[in-house]
């Protein structure tokens, strides 16, 4: 009992300095990253509170013949589209789809690519050889084409779009994770762990991945931005989102015909994409700098 | 050296076999059949069956695969379902457009990205660096197809300076090349800047300073070559990707290059055309990467000696 | 006393250097004085982080830009102050008058230039006599020969050389323009013992042959004993003891830190069961202790040590900065002489 | 009587290698990193291993611990060949054999706290059931190696080299091993810290009866700490003798040069001519038969290259691999 | 000619660069140069300038001579005897003989049978009588055979076809224009054929079809003068084009019809089997808004899947105007007062999708919950064929013979995707196919269309007009209902 208390006491006394806090401290110094983070938070807040800003059914979906193609005004801050739907409402609701596509695809492909990359990097040998050849094969097909082919095969829908993008991103992540894992596996502390008799799985999860995670997270962050762009691109050529669901890339694609006379229709969703990608890139850059051990002091 | 080149080219074979399989596999899932697409929706059933049989559409996947490989080994990559012409003929017709586009964009990317990256690195944290890096950040965040649309809106519609579509003269290439190059140049700028900053920290740069070399000399003679290595890889990868087609940009600027062909073919379930295009692309990318590696070896003696020994 | 003015090559007075990082300021060098005569070899020893490299870089004004800064002091080289010199003048000094050999031969050569190009560059930069290209090339061959590298290997790249050979190339570059002063910053730490012996022997030989002065930075007291004429012991950015080589190795009186250093190395000649090292660690350079910087680790620390900066006590050529030695000792010593 | 028995026990080697070979496959050929090495270390003793960079010292240590698969030969622990052990048995074996690494910066996982690092072996080997026991053991170990309690939750990068190396030692000690391979444990440290660590290692040996294999390239250190010394050259052991004997009476030409290359921190030796070796270490890839030191040896005779050499006992316990002096 | 001439003579228009040529937009690259293997409107619009048809259709629907200068129906033998016009030259200078005609028919029946089934399946045999006479034996008497000869049978030159690569790279026919070059990345170049035999001689010397897929880009190109005629410009630009003093606008009715079809295959979808539900849906569609959004007003609301000019179409066909109240009432009557839910309206990208999107909104108003699913062309056709849909927004380009509408309506037609199974219609359809008397045939067709309307088997949406944006000064003197404006109808104003 007293021992128990003792242990707790010691733990309390010399509390762990959180590394996350340390990274956060360094990141806070990076003004650009903080701007990015602020913008990003606003975007997330916006998409979370989309229903408060504008009703989905009433403003984002409902058509209104008498309000077609109204330029921005006090009633409709961003104007209306060809069906008379409020552009602001569509943009706000669209952010949900666009942002979650970015995070979802990155998350899943990072997970799968991460597992594959960690295994191949750690074990090497024939398994590595086979998986990497497979990835080479997938990589030699341009990812956007692969995505297009998959969506064509499975039929366009949001889910299939997600699957296609995810699949097309896995090889890239596998490579990145593998190469970071390789550098980590060469380190002495992995050998030390082996010398202790740790099992491979434990080594991968406790030693390899936590040390490889920095560059992977940075890559992941950057990839969210890339995925938002890719998804927008695919929606732009008509693959993926089904009407009347608002999504930025799809909004652009719909607006394209009207671009000459109603430029705000393309400018607004475009800026929305650019801003979110911009903010995520800033965060990614900041994270990279914050995680870079050479900048530690 | 040439043994290495041959080895690399031989490595292409399993990749191509895999690529062919994946394409045939995916294409076998795309709905519809080539004949209905060709004959239109009002064609009678027996006509469709007849044409599909001619195309070998009803063969099971392994048979298709083996047949394809067998024919390919005899130099026969088939006729496009859509145009009934040899597939590579179709590719070659469109390739110049793609090649020109890719080539010009990569050159422009390098011309914009590298010098500005160097300036940024040298004038670290000075106003010019701030301007360059923040512009780069913005450009790197723009969706390319959107940038293309805006450029058309401004330069073609409003100012009527450049044609908005098609190919023909150099003026047709100005906007698409810029659209392709700007975001990549932004990335190259950032990459150049960070690799330059990396090399500035290196010991041999300090050695050069201790010799009494001027800043200029240090930058151009000692840092640049080392700093450019990752940049060259990035440019090579970009070039490879562009050869595969700048799908969205070709769409936006209505240029019928390789990617337009590929998309049309995917949509028309024109399997021979899709497969051939992707084979073509894979080979090109592999060769590009090989050339990049050669350039690498040319610049970096450490890598050169790896190949030679 | 051999500090006649005409013989004096370099004099450092009260040099202070700080490094500014984004979170705090490191006081790397805290007011050191050093003097070096022509054709002399000065050894600087001290633990990691004592400020040895910083001192050397300050002489050449090569401190990392925007981070390292000389806040105070003078570096008088051949009668001129280097700290106030113009950058363009400094460039002429570097390589031509003073050259430097860095610790790690693996990274101090540019991997993408041939050995010849790098050596040639040093000559070309200081080609004051407008020698022709072929003359310079002949000089390249000569220098390589001098450091024992066959000249037919000059077209090779650094990675094709072994560590010892690379370090010799670095030395050849440093000596190419026959500088008056060579600063060697741990030139052999990265090398194997046998190679280290080769390189050191060669350096001493060349130094004598070319009549140069040298500052040798090391933490190996063995090397100091073999090569130096004068020694300075650095601790936390200060020189705690300095003097002729005999003063350090044979005198009775020593700064407690020097005693600790000697106690730390296993002696090949005398059998010892246990070493008697200094306890504790170097102080944090961002937060140095007040008074004598060494007092937290000093076995002989007194109350005064933590309160007042110790005085410099001079016994002829031998200086000790410590409270344990008093002014009286100093004057007694003088009287005895 | 009692004394006698103890002596008997001690004479029995704890670790023995028999014709140990480790070749690496490289693109340019077979790299003979460890080539036919026979060593034995008695219980409670220290074997020093010296040699130039790349001569295979670390590889030797790692193959003995089976951290690397070996090419040929045997490793006997207490007379038992550990190579036949399966995964589970090997895991138990690992508790008896540990390693201290050269670089205290690279051998500690930067994402783990001191506690996590030291406790890791205890956790994976399920030595203690409760967290409390582990906690106590860790604190005990920290005390043993002289680490203050307050560092328990620090990350290794927040500490200096000396403290880090102490963590490494505590980790190696955590399972009370009998045998420890010390791979240059002090070469990355400053002299004063180096001495602290050396003292610690020697204290521990005394207290816990540990057996060390001490790898280093610093001859002064090796002399100080070892009972016996093996000199390695390009994968082979060229000379092996008790420490004092080796320093007093080196026989192999390479050992002689090695000893004379050490700069001695005293002015007496300053005047004496030192023997300087010319040339570089032989390439360990596909080495030629015969003496590997031959190209650098000033006594070189053609017959040196005629056949492979073996280690001969020139004097009691003093082994040399040389055609001319052996 | 709808072009008003307001004093400005064509040459003053700064956009006119070369009166010897016109530049026309092409929305996609050509599918093929071989007209028998072609199924695509854009391709047809271009290459029908090169090929000449065997017969022609007059504006009122009567068949008139072209390559065949006369014909007679020989009832006993079930055959047509065609006399070929003498002195017709192919583009390569050789003369067109009856053997070429026979070759053309045979080609259609053999190599391109799959592509040209509608016509080819009617023919039993073709016999050459002499150099200028050919006999075509039919399987059955056919009401629309001559009509099909006028729109589908294009002249091939036997010699040229066999010598060249089956018209993959070049074409030799006897149309008003000959092919100069084709490059899939740039477009098509045509040149007037001086020896064209027809009445309307080509006036424009050179025509360039430039590939510009993007509708907006076409407008830009028109404004800059890079383009003289655009068929697929963005409709939203209509206002700009009308206001632009240098541009003109021209439109004409055509065979296109946009409609929404129901899946009425046996028992598959319960509510859609109910006539009242189908009617309700027909009433709920806001056709005007659809026309506004999809066509910028350039269309008329449709009564039927048959197009306005079709043989058999009349005002007797019932029209469902937009009336939500009535629709709701009908839903109530049908027992679906609370509406129902179904899978998705499938559609392809483009105008069909816009219609579907509005339909979605309209359906919601009467309580029908659904979604829109945009699919690729191939998947769309696949779904239609296999009956894997509930409602589909689609369009067809029908010719002006009523039989073409039957292809869609009748279960035995070639496009029976709706799966209407109406015995009465089937019977009437059989009759109309062999009825050679055109008055009687008209009545049969009309009655079928009226019944289709009353039963609300389809939801016809609108008849779009073919619209052209042109450089002012370029006059259009006529059009072909099925193909649209052909090059021979173009001329520059003096
Ligand atoms: N670029 C830098 N930025 C910040 N601090 C620095 C920098 N370089 C050196 N320092 C700090 O300055 C102090 C002196 O460093 P210096 O390199 O001069 O020591 P040294 O005696 O040469 O050590 P070593 O024996 O390890 O080479 C150290 O505390 C070090 O951490
Ligand atoms: N994993 C490996 N693959 C290939 N070669 C290796 C590997 N590990 C070591 N070697 C090679 O084996 C030889 C012996 O290496 P080892 O690390 O044992 O030398 P060492 O004596 O410990 O050197 P140092 O003093 O530098 O630590 C070297 O030539 C090295 O290049
Ligand atoms: Mg230093
Ligand atoms: Mg080692």
From TrEMBL, chain A:
It is found in: Cell membrane. The keyword Repeat does not apply. InterPro entries: BP-dependent_transpt_permease, MetI-like, MetI-like_sf, OppC_N. It is a multi-pass membrane protein. Keywords: Cell membrane, Membrane, Transmembrane, Transmembrane helix, Transport. The keyword Ribonucleoprotein does not apply. Residues 95-284 form the ABC transmembrane type-1 domain. The chain crosses the membrane at residues 32-54, 101-123, 144-167, 216-241, 262-283. Belongs to the binding-protein-dependent transport system permease family. PANTHER family: D,D-DIPEPTIDE TRANSPORT SYSTEM PERMEASE PROTEIN DDPC-RELATED (PTHR43386:SF1), OLIGOPEPTIDE TRANSPORT SYSTEM PERMEASE PROTEIN APPC (PTHR43386). This is ABC transporter permease. It comes from Lutispora saccharofermentans.
From TrEMBL, chain B:
Gene3D superfamilies: MetI-like. Signal peptide: none annotated. Residues 95-296 form the ABC transmembrane type-1 domain. It is a multi-pass membrane protein. CDD domains: TM_PBP2. The keyword Cell membrane applies. It is found in: Cell membrane. The chain crosses the membrane at residues 9-29, 97-119, 131-157, 169-189, 227-249, 278-299. Belongs to the binding-protein-dependent transport system permease family. This is ABC transporter permease. It comes from Lutispora saccharofermentans.
From TrEMBL, chain C:
It holds the Pfam family oligo_HPY. PANTHER family: NICKEL ABC TRANSPORTER, ATP-BINDING PROTEIN, OLIGOPEPTIDE TRANSPORT ATP-BINDING PROTEIN APPD. One of its GO terms (molecular function) is ATP binding. The keyword ATP-binding applies. Keywords: ATP-binding, Cell membrane, Ion transport, Membrane, Nickel, Nickel transport, Nucleotide-binding, Translocase, Transport. Residues 12-261 form the ABC transporter domain. Belongs to the ABC transporter superfamily. The complex is composed of two ATP-binding proteins (NikD and NikE), two transmembrane proteins (NikB and NikC) and a solute-binding protein (NikA). Its main location: membrane. The keyword Lipoprotein does not apply. SUPFAM superfamilies: P-loop containing nucleoside triphosphate hydrolases (SSF52540). It catalyses: Ni(2+)(out) + ATP + H2O = Ni(2+)(in) + ADP + phosphate + H(+). It is a peripheral membrane protein. This is Nickel import system ATP-binding protein NikD. It comes from the Bacteria. Its EC number is 7.2.2.11. It is found in: Cell membrane. PROSITE patterns: ABC_TRANSPORTER_1 (PS00211), ABC_TRANSPORTER_2 (PS50893).
Automatic annotation (TrEMBL), chain D:
The keyword ATP-binding applies. PROSITE patterns: ABC_TRANSPORTER_2. CDD domains: ABC_NikE_OppD_transporters. Residues 15-259 form the ABC transporter domain. The keyword Oxidoreductase does not apply. GO terms for molecular function: ATP binding. Keywords: ATP-binding, Nucleotide-binding, Transport. InterPro entries: AAA+_ATPase, ABC_transp_ATP-bind, ABC_transporter-like_ATP-bd, Oligopep_ABC_C, P-loop_NTPase. Pfam families: ABC_tran, oligo_HPY. This is ABC transporter ATP-binding protein.
